[in-house]
């Protein structure tokens, strides 16, 4: 099995490699850089599912144009959805405070928008990851993973995931940004959950 994972993020690539290995798959992973894909993809969908598929279809076009065959394409889209904000920032997670915002600008905008809701039960949210896989035969497979939690009243230690300093996973009393690495790994799993579901679907198809 050969997989093209449409990302330049090495952490995502490492996570995918670990999950594939844990399922006993013998697979080679390739990145966009490996195939010479450097096109800027315009993600103008309205949902995580749409944006994930837009990325996959653009890579598929590149495959056809360059006669690349027998590789599975996997792409993702992910973000934070806050219930009281009607799912914001959602697909705009990375640019919630404008184009190329800093971490603290995104965090401050979210905290400001939640000021009318000081009670923790009104600050529920979830991290979402959607994966789209396009198989060599043209079949499409979609998986989704979610990690639920609440938004803290103020941010903790900055760094890491954009909203990690304010995202308190269910079952914990502090933001992910303040957790030790082993705690962090155990709860930051929306992408891992989506990956595991996708690999299980591959198994069902006989891969």
SSE topology sketch:
Blueprint: E1 2-5, H1 10-22, E2 28-30, H2 32-35, H3 48-65, E3 72-82, H4 103-113, E4 124-134, E5 140-151, E6 167-169, H5 181-187, H6 190-204
Parallel strand pairs: 1-2, 1-3
Antiparallel strand pairs: 3-4, 4-5, 5-6
Helix pairs in contact: 1-6
Query: Which radius of gyration do the C-alpha atoms yield?
Result: 18 Å
Number of helices: 6
Strands of the biggest beta sheet: in what spatial order?
2-1-3-4-5-6
Helix content: 25-40%
The largest sheet is: 6 strands, mixed
Poorly predicted parts: none
- Describe the global form: globular
Q: Which descriptors would you attach to this protein?
A:
Maf protein; 207 residues; alpha/beta; single chain; 6 strands; 21% strand
Question: What can you tell me about this protein's structure?
Answer:
Helix 1 packs across helix 6 (190-204). With 207 residues, this protein is α/β, with parallel strands linked by helices. It has a six-stranded mixed sheet. Helices cover 33% and strands 21% of the residues. The protein has a single domain, classed as Maf protein (Alpha-Beta Complex), CATH 3.90.950. It is globular, with a radius of gyration of 18 Å. The chain starts with a strand and ends with a helix. It has helices at residues 10-22, 32-35, 48-65, 103-113, 181-187, 190-204, and strands spanning 2-5, 28-30, 72-82, 124-134, 140-151, 167-169. The longest helix is centred in the N-terminal third of the chain and has 18 residues, at 48-65.
């Amino acid at each position: 099995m050969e997989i093209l994972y449409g990302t330049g993020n090495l952490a995502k690539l490492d996570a995918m490699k670990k999950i594939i290995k844990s399922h006993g798959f013998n697979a080679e992973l390739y990145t966009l850089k490996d195939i010479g894909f450097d096109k800027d993809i315009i993600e103008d969908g309205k949902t995580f599912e749409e944006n994930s598929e837009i990325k996959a279809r653009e890579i598929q076009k590149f495959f056809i144009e360059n006669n690349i065959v027998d590789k599975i394409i996997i792409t993702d889209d992910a973000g934070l959805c806050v219930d009281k904000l009607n799912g914001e920032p959602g697909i705009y997670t990375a640019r919630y405070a404008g184009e190329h915002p800093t971490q603290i600008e995104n965090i401050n905008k979210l905290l400001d928008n939640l000021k009318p809701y000081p009670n923790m039960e009104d600050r529920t949210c979830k991290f979402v990851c959607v994966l789209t896989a396009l198989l060599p035969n043209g079949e499409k497979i979609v998986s989704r993973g979610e990690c639920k939690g609440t938004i803290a009243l103020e941010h903790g230690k900055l760094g890491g995931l954009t909203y990690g300093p304010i995202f308190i996973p269910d079952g914990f009393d502090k933001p992910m940004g303040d957790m030790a690495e082993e705690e962090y790994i155990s709860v930051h799993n929306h992408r891992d959950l989506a990956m595991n579901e996708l690999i299980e679907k591959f198994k069902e198809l006989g891969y």
